[in-house]
Amino acid sequence: MNIVIKNKNDIEKMKISGYLASEVLDMIKPYLVPDITTLELNNICHDYIKNKQKAIPGCLGYQGFPKSVCISVNNVVCHGIPNHQEKLKKGDIVNIDVTIIKDKYYADTSKMFIIHPCKKKEAKKLCYAAQQSLYSTFKIIKPGIPINLIGKEIQKYINTTPYSIVEEYCGHGIGKNFHEKPYILHYLNNYKKIILQEGMIFTIEPIINLGEKHVFCMQDGWTIKTKDNSLSAQYEHTILVTKDGCEILTLRKKEKINRIYKNI
Q1: pTM for the predicted model, two decimal places
Q2: By residue range, what is the domain housing residue 164?
Q3: Around Cβ 147, how many Cβ atoms within 10 Å?
Q4: Binding site membership for a divalent metal cation: which residues?
């Protein structure tokens, strides 16, 4: 398998892209209020990326995707297309997925937002579980471990909850290309052939459903929804494998976790 091991220059460039991607999620938070449309949110993100950051929104035009960010609301699992008809409501849970290209290097990240006031305890718990399932992997990532331990760790955490893991979508290598090898499965699997090496950069992006794991694609060819109409939540970071652990390249300013994990 042709996996690109990033050199020092690659890593420095991707740290910049990662910071910019995280910055978009910090910037957009105050705008997530009832009655704003997902298209308005998309346009705010687009203008910020293009005019403030002098970067490129990586989603726009990728394999025909028509908007600059993906916005997935409630039962939308991923790849939600922003539009002028969809208005956010009190109690909604919303994933915004941002991909940045800066100096030809990509970074990819997403997080959940809750539109307050939210009285749905199950929605808050689901978002928390999705976040913690991602966080659980950071303490095990290091050179020399088989790649399937990432999915095993996520499965281990989700098994302590009543929720399910979507299996159709996975994390991926990233660099000068949006999607590279290796692919990161987010559930228990036996794919042990790939061993993590220093300089690998990839995303981890588990999607967790309140109900069953099964999903389907809408007629637009992009929007993925839960089959049972249950809520879905996702968090994503771009991760660098270091000599003794890992570094989160898309860490947000107010995120209360470490940027660097030493696991050796």
Answers
A1: 0.97
A2: 8-258
A3: 22
A4: 97, 108, 172, 205, 236
